[in-house]
Amino acid sequence: MSDQKRTALVTGGNRGLGEAIAQALLDAGHEVIITHTPGNRKAADWVKGLAAQGIHLSAYGVDVSVYESVQELARKIHADGRQIDILVNNAGITRDATLRKLDKANWDLVLRTNLDSMFNVTKPFVEAMMERGWGRIINISSINGSKGQFGQTNYSAAKAGVHGFTMALAQEVARKGVTVNTVAPGYLATEMVAAVPEETLQRIVSGIPVGRLGEPAEIAALVTFIASDAAAFMTGSKVSMNGGQHMQ
Ligand code: CAA
C-alpha cells in the first residue's frame, strides 16, 4: 500500500543533500516546501527553473538560526491552509578551524544554525503534528557528530547535540504518532565537502572502506523511508550511512 500524499518541509532544500531530499520526497508523491537563506536569488531562480520543467515546490527565504524568521514562515504556511506532516531539519553550515584559530563568531554561528535551528524549526510545527496524530521529524546530523573531526569543534558539538534533541523529543511525542529520528551521513559529493582542502579530502576518502564519497540521493532514499508509514515503529534512532568510515 503506498503512502498518502503528505506535506514536507525541508530546510536548506535548495542544494546539496537538502535538494536531493526534496527531490526524493517529490518523487514519493509528497508536496514539498523548502527553505533557503533569505535573499538567495540563485535559489529563487532554481525554483522557477524547476517550475518550467513541471516540478512544483514552494520556497521561502528563512534564517533557521532566528526563531522569529521561522515563526514568520509558519504563519505563511498556515495562512495558505497547509500543515507540515514531514519535517526534515537539514539546513546546516561549516566554519572549520582548529579551536586555537576558531573565533567566537564562528562558534556561535555554527551552533545557532546547526543546533538552535532544531528548536526554532521544530517548535512551530510539532504541536499540530501531535494533534493530527501523525508526524515525521528527521534531523540531519553527521558522522562528525558521532566521531568528532579535527577542525570541527563547533560542527561536531552541534551535530552531536542534534541527536540529544532527537532522543528527548522522540520520547515526548511517541504516543501521538509522531516519530523523531536522526540521520547521520558521512562525506558526500556536495559543495560543503568540496570546500575541504583537496589533500585533506583525499586522505579522508582513503579512510572510507567503500572507497568513495556518498551520493546525496543515497541519503535521500533513507530519509524517504523514515518519512513513510512503514517506519512508524522507528523513533529516537540515529541511522548512519557513511561508507563504513565510522562503525558503531
Ligand atoms: N589529525 C591530527 N593532526 C592533524 C590533522 C588530523 N586529522 N589534520 C591536520 N593535522 C595537523 C597538521 O599536520 C598540522 O601539523 P603541524 O602544525 O605539525 O604541521 C596541524 O595539525 C595544523 O593543520 P592544518 O594545516 O590543517 O591547520 P589549518 O589551520 O591550516 O587547517 C582545517 C585546519 C581548516 C580544520 C583543515 O584541517 C580542514 O579543513 N580539515 C577538514 C575538516 C573537515 O573534515 N571538515 C568536514 C567538512 S564537510 C562536513 O562537515 C560535512 C559532514 O557532515 C561530513
From TrEMBL:
GO terms for molecular function: acetoacetyl-CoA reductase activity. SMART domains: PKS_KR. InterPro entries: Acetoacetyl-CoA_reductase, KR_dom, NAD(P)-bd_dom_sf, Sc_DH/Rdtase_CS, SDR, SDR_fam. GO terms for cellular component: cytoplasm. One of its GO terms (biological process) is poly-hydroxybutyrate biosynthetic process. Residues 6-200 form the Ketoreductase domain. The keyword Oxidoreductase applies. Keywords: Oxidoreductase. Transmembrane segments: none annotated. SUPFAM superfamilies: NAD(P)-binding Rossmann-fold domains. The keyword Oxidoreductase applies. It comes from the Bacteria. Belongs to the short-chain dehydrogenases/reductases (SDR) family. This is Beta-ketoacyl-ACP reductase. It comes from Advenella faeciporci.
